[in-house]
Prior knowledge:
Layout (H helix, E strand, L loop, with lengths): L1 H7 L1 E4 L5 H19 L6 E2 L4 E5 L8 H5 L2 H11 L4 E10 L16 H6 L4 E7 L10 E3 L19 H10 L1 E3 L6 E4 L5 E3 L10 E7 L10 E4 H6 L2 H4 L4 E4 L27
Parallel strand pairs: 11-12
Antiparallel strand pairs: 1-8, 2-3, 3-4, 4-10, 5-8, 5-10, 6-7, 6-9
Amino acid sequence: MINNLYDDGIAAIPGAFSSGWGEALAEDFATLFAEASGRPDGTVNRGRNRYYFSVHPERLRGFPDVVGHPVLQEVSTEVLGPDWRVVEVAFDVPLPGSLHQPWHRDFETPAITADERRLTSLAFNITAVTVTPEMGPFEIAPGTQWDDGARFSHGMFPEPDQAARYGKVAVQKMPRLGDMSVRTGLAIHRGTPNRSSVPRPVLIIGVVGPEVSTGPHGLQISRAYAERLPAPLLARLDTEVVDELSPLVQGHDIEGLVMGDMGDMGGDD
Length: 269
């Protein structure tokens, strides 16, 4: 699995959770998305009919199962070192009618990664549906996490002549309900058009090594929830502990992703 992660930028963890666990995740998503959509700044636009929003960990019934999953623990420790921590708990969802996103990285390549090929962060993705080709599968260009991003806009978005090449090597991922994957946000990827009649939600658990600051995600848990969590799991959360949860204002905006409204961004043959 570690070899796949370093070679391709992504590795599958099929059957990480049961279908019943996945159905509960889908129910939690539906509740949280309705709440987030109903308040100002509750979601971030990632292109037409495509949204991202952070959530409070304790609003997910299966959150301890995710952070405590042995594969997540083992991979995080091997890749990021023993002091890794969780900094992001969020959903990304392409709704029916979403379009191609532009090819992109999630962030600019850190100097330590460029110099030493050492990854400093990982994203664990857990699908809340069984994905079909019509649902707008996640698409990734394997091995591109090591590509030089000097010509990328903001270090994240390849120029059009580069983007065409990614389309020729890209593969679409179609996990089943309860499957998990791990990837580096540096591998070039995009969302594809959701031509179905249903959303395709995916839970994102962002994990970082000690070199990385918390950034814009800002986890928050209640004091009562902190007291119920096993101490080893609580220690992994880069979180604020509060007496009462407050609504989350989304801060993880990637401006260039709204360019997905331009339609087909090329390289789809």
